[in-house]
């Protein structure tokens, strides 16, 4: 609530700052309202009413002493009004509505728990992944349906239907609004992390559609990861997820050039990385590793690998031995062809292109996967096997669906040996 | 409380035949264990005994065989009354058919 206090003392909160603060507070208020009202739509409409009232009155009256409490009380009143109207339409006893709502609870722990309930319900395994992401953006990030549609490259009508259907499934199938029990928590937290990570990648690799808006998704994902970590600070997955996203996001200013083309890790201007975020993430990695000494959490391990890159002054000065070792650890908890490919590429950096190519070639199941084809092309090129490299680049370019990465491969194809 | 139908999709075999006695016994065990939430249910003879009924322009049109041609068929169901979907899923996971095939959990429209 410090940002609000600052605003109050500053005396004249800018409209944009107020909107941002209301969006942050709004999701907490929504999380509480969903629990007490029990109806997602009524809760959402009521929070929107309350936010609208705050925007209309706060600039005049100043931000109230306890803004969150103000919003909860106001939203609750709006919800009661809405329920009354609905009951009247259904010719039910209107006065009974207020009694249906449990008493207010403004305890900070309860409000945090409500937010966690919202996180876990949005990421419930009974909901399809696309629906989870849409609902998380709508409710946890406070985006409008139109913004969610644009960010996920879906028509607004389709998105509106998807969100409505998802809320309907939650209501009809009685998907619970609760924090999972301790024994279910690790599994359910992995589902939450997968959703947040998917969201991050949608923004991180945004190259089509409304690019600035899609890039915002990465920022929203980091905010969500931070929220999950704030709520569950001792869970390795929550620690690792936040660390991993912070490390990847810290490179945001260096990973595209002035023309919007991707800049590979090796070529990035490391001065443009956000080193304060790297420092925060590295501390998280250490804490995450201490919390799961027996069976390392895959997100913590991936963050450890990212930290090796983030702490290196240059590609050449990277501790590739450590990177390969971390990949060995990762394969013990998450063994897949993509993880094996990344390990093989790191071996190429540590032991030279011949060893790298041998390691890449034994990874099975990626024959049509653009990064595998590109890794082969680059290694062949480094080995001076120009003819084979040219063929490999051709295959990689055909398989690559991202236009900017395709251009990058074309450039590399034209200057063999330099890659 | 919400009422769910747990629809059991398994191989299209005759569950009343003696060679399936073991599975049938497993269902008996599940039924005793989940008696508190079971509100109804039935096991079905194989789809070779099915008749599909449609009414077209007022005429009853019957066909032999099941409605859909798939490997796993609707071979039985339970009605389960549970607090929420997580409880229903936990109960459905104990139905033997979940191991041999799949159990679809669907909320029942209250009438």
UniProtKB/TrEMBL annotation, chain A:
Species per Swiss-Prot/TrEMBL record: Actinomycetospora chlora
Protein name as catalogued: Sigma-70 family RNA polymerase sigma factor
All copies of domain RNA polymerase sigma-70 region, residue ranges: 24-88
Question: To which protein family does this belong?
Answer: Belongs to the sigma-70 factor family. ECF subfamily.
Which InterPro entries does this entry report, sorted A to Z? DUF6596, RNA_pol_sigma-70_dom, RNA_pol_sigma70_r2, RNA_pol_sigma70_r4_t2, RNA_pol_sigma_r2, RNA_pol_sigma_r3/r4-like, WH-like_DNA-bd_sf
- Sorted UniProt keywords: Sigma factor, Transcription, Transcription regulation
Domain of life, per UniProt, equals Bacteria
Q: Where is the RNA polymerase sigma factor 70 region 4 type domain?
A: 120-170
Residue ranges annotated as transmembrane are: none
Whether Cell division counts among this entry's keywords is no
Per UniProt, residues of the DUF6596 domain are 188-286
TrEMBL record, chain B:
Instruction: Write down the Gene3D superfamilies for this protein, in alphabetical order.
Output: Dimeric alpha+beta barrel
What superkingdom does the record give?
A: Bacteria
Q: Name one Pfam family in it.
A: YCII
InterPro entries with a match to the protein in the record: Dimeric_a/b-barrel, YCII
The record places domain YCII-related at 18-111
Q: Which family does it belong to?
A: Belongs to the YciI family.
The record's section on PANTHER family has: BLL7171 PROTEIN, BLL7171 PROTEIN-RELATED
Designated name of the protein: YciI family protein
Q: Which organism is it from?
A: Actinomycetospora chlora
Q: What is the lineage of its organism?
A: Bacteria, Bacillati, Actinomycetota, Actinomycetes, Pseudonocardiales
